[in-house]
Amino acid sequence: MNKTQLDESLSFLTNPEGELQIIIYAITNENDEPKKLDIDSGDLSTIKSLFINSVKNLIIEKTDFVVLPLSTADERGKCFYQYDLDVPDELKLLETVIGNDSLATFNLRAARFSDIRAMIVVIADSRREITLYKNVSPIEIIGRGGNLFWKSNQRLEKFDEELLRISPKFQVIRVNNEIIIIDLPQIEKGFGIHDVIIQEATSSLEIIDRIRIVSNIDSLRELVTDVTFARKLTKVARSSPVLRLKIPNSDIIAFVKNHPLTKKKIRLNDDETQFNLDTRISKDLFIKILNDDLLTSELTKLYYDTLAKDGIEVEEDL
N or C end of the chain: smaller count of CB under 10 Å? Predict the structure, then answer.
């Protein structure tokens, strides 16, 4: 899914078939199934407008953003990420709540707002729907850990209940059966995504080991638990042009020996058939090479280190 397709999938929010409906579910600290929040219909209309405007502000109006597979995430900004790894159980709830009439209602007598750690918001017309995942931060539970007072005539009286503030910010959206991450740093803190990335990075190492281009493969293995480096390794397994095109080791080594950025920073073994990655710089550069990040302009002959490489379709001469 690219950004244009994402925007088109959200267009029904402003041009729905029939009336837009909204349902909000609470995910509690008990890790049980989501509970439906019973909200007055008049107030639901206000909340619906709140989240529709949030989708516009956070996604549709970000015209300079792109959508990338999560497995290829890098240091670029202005990106949304399409989830293409193993989906954690909590994000699977974005699908399982759809049309699930068996889910119980949040019991306001037995539970507290401070038990809520996240919400799932469903907005749908007669044919399409989106689901939003929203973390509930401590500041959105008013009265937790403190004393509230309210005005009673001319006197302040203690208010013993908690208040729930529903803010418009969300971190994940599910649309057209795809999960799109809007706020990656927030999501990476939970859901075991780091573990998934490390697992994918380990698979990448196995692929690198099979082509026998690194003499000391353990020097890369020791960095697998470094999530920043692991993410770069994950990108290798999923989308390395060098591996996909089966570029010979001899060509890769010749490139490194001649490129001004790498020729003095990546060592070779004695017979110059493998890399000896003995520094962090050499390991980072090696990953850049496999991801084809070191480019040269045919026009200016200048060298570039670039993450964004949008492919182009070459039209054949008639």
Answer: C
Are 146 and 174 in contact by the 8 Å Cβ rule? The answer is no
Which tokens sit at 235? Answer: 């990108």
Here the contacts of 10-13 (C-beta below 8 Å, separation 24 or greater) are 10/55, 10/59, 10/60, 10/130, 10/175, 12/125, 12/127, 12/128, 13/52, 13/55, 13/56, 13/123, 13/130
Cα separation, 83 vs 228, in Å, equals 18
What is the residue whose two structure tokens read 């020791």? 222
- Nearest residue to 131 (alpha-carbon basis) of 165, 83, 164: 83
Question: Is the whole model's pTM more than 0.70, yes or no?
Answer: yes
Residue 127: partners with Cβ closer than 8 Å, 6 or more residues away:
12, 17
Let me know the angle formed at the C-alpha of 282 by 278 and 286, rounded to the nearest 5 degrees. Answer: 120
DSSP-derived secondary structure letter, 39: -
b/e string for 36-61 if b means 16 or more Cβ within 10 A? bbebeeeeeeebbeebbebbeebbbe
Regarding beta strands 141-142 and 178-181, do their DSSP bridges make them parallel or antiparallel, or are they unpaired?
unpaired
Question: Helices (H), strands (E): how many in the chain?
Answer: 10, 16
pLDDT, tens only, 193-208: 788 888 888 988 999 9
Report how far residue 249's alpha carbon sits from residue 310's, in angstroms, rounded to the nearest whole number.
Answer: 25
Tens digits of residue pLDDT in 138-194: 788 777 666 777 777 777 777 777 888 889 999 999 999 999 999 888 887 677 778
